[in-house]
Amino acid sequence: MMNSKKWSAVFVSLTALVLAGIMALNYFVDPYKYFSSQSGEYYEADETDYLREQKAEHIRKCKDNYDAYLVCGSKGGAVRTDKLRELDGYEYYNCWVLSGNLVDYLAYVQYILDHTEAKKILLQLSTSELHDFSREDQGDIYEIPAIVSGESKVAEYMKFLMMNPSVAWEKITGEQPVKYPCLPTGERNLTKYYQYYHSNASAENNNYVNYVLWDTAKYLKYMDRDVPEKPVTLEQIVMTLKEIKRLCDKKGVELQVFYAPLFVVQMMRYEGESFYDMLEESVMIFDEVWCFNNFNGYTLCPYNFYNSTHFFYEMGDLVIDTMKGRETASSDFGVCLTRENVGAEITKRRQKLAELKSYYLKNHTFPYEGFSSPYNLKKIYG
Running along the chain, 382 residues long, what does each successive block of 10 average in pLDDT? Predict the structure, then answer.
């Protein structure tokens, strides 16, 4: 019979083997693409992977390739770096992150300023950031990586080695989904969305519109009353925006800010006094802010969006053309807000909000632009 020392030795050995097996499985399968991303030049990760880590490592490794950085949430994933070059001649990296928020933006701005020779930061904001100031509690791929936060890299490395092995096992044994890796300069890969658009969008049926609208009910629950205010979140956002400006000013780095275009349905979810306060405060902080999430034909056209919350590359191009001062088909697509005109713009928005609410409550829909509308941007990338 084994004595207690032998049993203990066997137990310790078995435990060590199990742990070694878990670590080996997680390392070689790499279900979140954490270990692959350490090189900084791994370009097979897509939105289901730990893109926050991949992007941070890429910035560290390839900083000499870029003059400027777009810091934003997933909407900005459709802003092409080739187009951004036309804005000011800089070489951009698109540092979008899934479910972006102000905690992320401050962390990445600080990281970029500390570890690169950036000449410019282009910061994209969205009204959806009023929903959550931070989104780290959504899961591991939403956490700020240690290389950016300054926390222990060793502890993070061990965390991914010791992840629940069922995730890695599922990657091996389960059905393998088609991956759509981000482009090397950071843009979101929209191939599957363009494929769906070209297969389903037409003037003869509403298949594509129904696809874009299928999950919009969650945005419409406040149509018959005011949107709840977010004073605590707004206060946190304002403090963070001030800190981003302070950091850029301290380093002498140009900072330009714009609000992303939103589909009208999502826009209605956040349109209210908290957002108007955010809009006004951001103008007071940055002096000049471009705003593209206003009510116009483009944001009323479902065909410009690949789902209810994200726009196609062509809309991103239109944003840059407008900021550059090029003539576009609509004079009201975006507005450059200043201290002199922000009050008048908010007054116009309140009026338009009341009109759209009244229209919706009467017709149970919005006055959407159709497939043949001049506001349906011609798809040239898919």
Answer: 67 80 93 96 94 97 97 97 97 96 96 98 92 84 95 96 92 87 96 96 94 92 87 91 98 98 94 94 97 94 97 97 76 89 96 96 96 96 86
Task: Give the helix ranges, DSSP H, for 49-186.
Answer: 51-62, 81-88, 102-115, 146-149, 153-161, 165-173
CA distances from 128 to 8, 210, 234, 241 (A): 55, 22, 12, 15
Check residue 330 and give left, alpha or beta (phi > 0: left; psi -120 to 50: alpha). Answer: beta
Beta bridge partner(s), residue 311: 305
Non-local (6+) Cβ contacts of 3 within 8 A are none
Give the burial string for 77-89 (b: 16+ CB within 10 Å, else e). Answer: bbbbbebbeebbe
Cβ contacts of 28 within 8 Å, gap of 6 or more: none
- State the Rg of the chain over Cα: 23
